[in-house]
Here is the input.
Amino acid sequence: MHPSYISYAFLGSFLTAVFFLQWWQEPAFPWWIFLVLGSVGFFGFLGCMLKTTRREGAVVLATCLGTMMGFLVIAWSTHIPSPENVETYATGEEIAIRGTIADDPDRRALKTNYVVRAELMKNGGRAIAVVGRVLMTVRIGNPLFEYGDVIVARGTLELPESDDDFRYDNYLSVKDVYSLMNDPLIEHTGNGSTRLPTGNRGNVLLKAIYRFKNSLQERINLVLPEPHASLLAGLLLGSRGGMPEDLTQDFRTTGLTHIVAISGYNITMLITVMGTFLFWLPLKWRFWPSVLLIAGFTLLTGASASAVRAAVMGILGLLALQLNRIQTTRLTVLWSAFLMLAWNPKQLWYDAGFQLSFLALIGVLEIGPLLQPYLRRLPKFLGIQESFCLTLSAQMLASPWILYLFGQFSLIAPVSNLLAPPAVPAAMLLGTVSVLLSGIWLPMGRMTAVIAWLPLQWITGVARLLSSLPYASFDLPGLSTIWIVLYYGLLVGWMIRKNHTLRLATSAMHAATQLAQGKSLERFTTHTAESSSSRSNATGSSFPSAAGAGS
Here is the structure.
């Protein structure tokens, strides 16, 4: 029995259990569930011992183990409110919280978001030890703080509000945040070197990465004007806080937001444009430059959980193209999803970045090969055919989900993603060079930035021009789940039909090849026999005579 059957059974049952358990989250599930799964799994184990039912028994055992693993992961990750949790004190009263900034600050045009790991809470002169993470939003003009700083924040602690369109509490729970404080008064009490309990000091490596990232951000602002500086910061650092609102809307309308977002969708497009940039190299030689690009991008963006996840997805997509073995790649993708969800299953339920990452990657792997016959007439020059195929295949699977989540669908996205992404490698390369040169001599960096301005201007120009076209995108809020299910059902049916047709064509071609080889072998054998007979007649049948004399 091929081991892939066991892997598919284990991973499929785990993912299915995690998906459906979003509606039944418990810190401890009833004991009878594990008893039933264990009993069925035991019978599956007994089936493995028999030669006639070995395969069926292994599949049953793997299915039970995967389902059981799903229940255990949900039980482990379910948040349990307790008096020690800081969100318990979200009563509308003003309190003071002492803690450490636990993540890279998210700086926007008019505000800065800090995620603070709480340590102490003061209320009415009473100090209470607390645990938990708080999202603090501070308006522009207040002092700036860095990762690892120890602060005291005074304000009103609140619970995140949600509505029918967006569950803000679920979104924050992915980051293990269950309370927030708007516009608090923050005082700096020290940095990561202050004596604090273990785990509240900040990571030295992350500090260095964040400082390097901030210094690059400052250099970008020195050598480029807006909005080009914000666009380059988004391309190199995944930061789009300073991007003007009108340009952000243009990117959203044309389906180009992924270019400056830290997601697997973004990494997939980076791989596409890198392949376009290195079209003159064989496929196997493009692998390592693309991996280095993804690794560098991940480090520059701070190596956050979303960035690491996106990098893993991108490298898996590269590996799929490199190996050209869809069976191995499918299992690799599923095992990666298993590891990520075993660490944080809420990503599957509430993290749009995680969902779009997998949808885009699956689209590239599964739909891309099926679209190639339809795109044969597109020119291969500069990798246009490959770029369009990867972009379209990713959007066929991801765009309907974007429409469902955000209520906006871009009709112009295939065109914009064909025109804008090819300029990204040049913008990144020239932008990086100009930033580095500015550290040596600022005028030299600014002169190089003039050249980097051209591809950046092309990207913004494409977004602005195409977004101004009529019917470039349309809003469809409140889309029913039935339509999404119907679309994906029809898409899966089309994929199954196309795969079946391709298998039949491949089998027919293989049979024809075998038949042709068989006829060639038959002709070769006949020709050899006739040649041997001719040689025997030419020599006067000497061998039979010798045999007769010998006898």
Q: What stands out?
A: The two ends are 58 Å apart (CA to CA). DSSP finds 19 helices and ten strands in the chain. Residues 193-200, 538-551 have pLDDT under 50 and may be disordered. Strands lie at 94-101, 106-107, 111-123, 126-129, 133-139, 150-158, 177-182, 185-190, 408-410, 473-475.
